[in-house]
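[job 0412] stage=fold_complex status=start
inputs:
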Amino acid sequence: MKDFRPVPVERAWAWIDAATNRLRPEEVALDDAAGRVLWAELRTTDPIPTADCAAVDGFALNSAATFGAGAYNPLTLVADRIEAGEPLPPGTDAVLAAELAECDDAGRLSVIDPLAVGANVQRRGAIAPEGAVLAAVGACLDPATLGLLGIAGVARVAVAARPAIRLVIAGRARSGPLLDSNGPMLRALIARDGGVVRMAGFGEALFPGADLVVIAGGTGPGPSDHSAAALAKAGSLEIYGVAMAPGDTAGFGRTAAGTPVILLPGEPAACLWAYELFAGRAVRRLAGCTPELPYRRQTVITARKIVSAIGLTEIVPVRRLEDGRIEPVASFVEAGLGATIAADGFVIVAAASEGRPAGTAIDAYFYDHGGGFGWPR
Amino acid sequence: MKDFRPVPVERAWAWIDAATNRLRPEEVALDDAAGRVLWAELRTTDPIPTADCAAVDGFALNSAATFGAGAYNPLTLVADRIEAGEPLPPGTDAVLAAELAECDDAGRLSVIDPLAVGANVQRRGAIAPEGAVLAAVGACLDPATLGLLGIAGVARVAVAARPAIRLVIAGRARSGPLLDSNGPMLRALIARDGGVVRMAGFGEALFPGADLVVIAGGTGPGPSDHSAAALAKAGSLEIYGVAMAPGDTAGFGRTAAGTPVILLPGEPAACLWAYELFAGRAVRRLAGCTPELPYRRQTVITARKIVSAIGLTEIVPVRRLEDGRIEPVASFVEAGLGATIAADGFVIVAAASEGRPAGTAIDAYFYDHGGGFGWPR
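[job 0412] stage=fold_complex status=done
writing structure:
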């Protein structure tokens, strides 16, 4: 535990933010863009549609010509067929839907209802006006946005390159006989945040060729804990220890070539939270996403007191009651990863706070985001 | 539009639920299980941990033996080193953290603070008691659950096989010159719901070899709309038309071999909603997930009247105001997919309803789920 000098989480965040930036743009086809992170804002150059269009298949008419039409006064009009999405011909301002039209072989329509001006017409710019933002920088491309980009005529799109994250499982197996529990968890987390996982052994941890190195385990005070010392020796150890629970033995440094390295504790709950607060932030920044935690945040009221040690940023698992208030459940320190079973989410109690009395407002993060595969981030 | 007889959405849902079931289990390694859907409930057989364990690296002691220890009364005790996660040796009930211990080469500790019983001990069953549910049937495996399963000694897990979804883009291109907007959107939606997309041409649409066929476009009344007629001819068309907006020209049937086929309208907003309400439900059921819409649902108050035609189930895009109430924005009929730009979510107004006056409660679905790559579903 030489060099172990816990810093506030804000110091660790500042280190990450200085060490990581999105990498570079790469162009992908719309078909391959789902879940990717947009490199630059996309705006319409022209309104969509560029002209008044038929909203349905039918016949384009001048509505004024249908004035007075009725079941007892059918009007016979000649009109061109039009398909949904086609621009209205000059002199027309409404569309008679095909299924309501009676049309003979000579193209003569029998109209028995007057058409309102604009009926079944999609106006110029109705989908998006000129200069509208279709997707913002850093947006994770969702299905509806991909559809919109297709409509806007975008065939290829510039997205942020995915960072290569070298993942090293350095600690002792904390689970059943020889089973690694942190590996599957971290692979899934890195993929969620837009990184490409490359597993490596401890001996290759600090080799060149990655955008970020994540080493899990071996950060503690035990005699078999070598991660911090190895990083200090072969590269630099810039921060060792964060005043948080769980996750206090996280560390930060660089390889000899300058690649950022993040050390995560091996205890699974500490590993999870040091990932979420630190490594995940680094991966998301490298991937061009917002660095914020990818959980839905909502201000809620505490139903019971939340206790937290002053001087430590604490992650407290919480359960949501029927009435929408929250209460703490068995902590990550007591129950390890088991704390997530009973929890609907968590709160982050700042180091300066001793917690919250019952009945006060606090920001909570919830797991129940509903689905999707990564948007919005 | 022969055979076009719109049915209530509930009828279409009943058809889907009768036509689709999860496929079969397949076993995957924990490393490959992220985002997969659990086939059977996973419970602990033994408590985790199975015995009282060290929560930190240090020295296992009998707390009673430390009674009276103090800075001016250091006690010298002999104790074994213990690593976090190891079971406590018989006769010990507390752990002195390594960083607080002074230990000479002969293994003699100098103890200057009394240890409370249970200090730095993780109790038998603290992570999960015997018989605890680690993950439920149909759960989408998230990172923390993967970690827990690793801790529980689960190396391989039975997940639902991914359904093969044949996707056919049959309609005219509705977007810019020759660009298809529905293809990228539907591929992303199917992947989100756990399906494996296989693109096919219209001529191969009804061949054997898929778990579900989705044909987008060509469902309308136009002269170039052949999807419904082709399905009726080569297989069966069992439902054609749903009383909803947008998306009323959705259709349902089977190939000659009995594979379910869902027809989606080609207009992009109608395509999106017919997918979300019908094809998505089918994919999610085949994939073993809950059939519910993968958006977060919340009861909210309307700030303005929501108007809806009686007899039609309507999808109404809504915006959330600062105070948490919602109001409708330009409809999908007016603005097509562009309606999603201004919306934070949507409400589904049932066919029997004419809408809602301002100030009433309604269930809304929101896009702001925060992230994740597909859990929980």
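[job 0412] summary: Chain A has four domains: 9-22+161-286, 26-48+127-160, 53-122, 296-366.
[job 0412] exit 0
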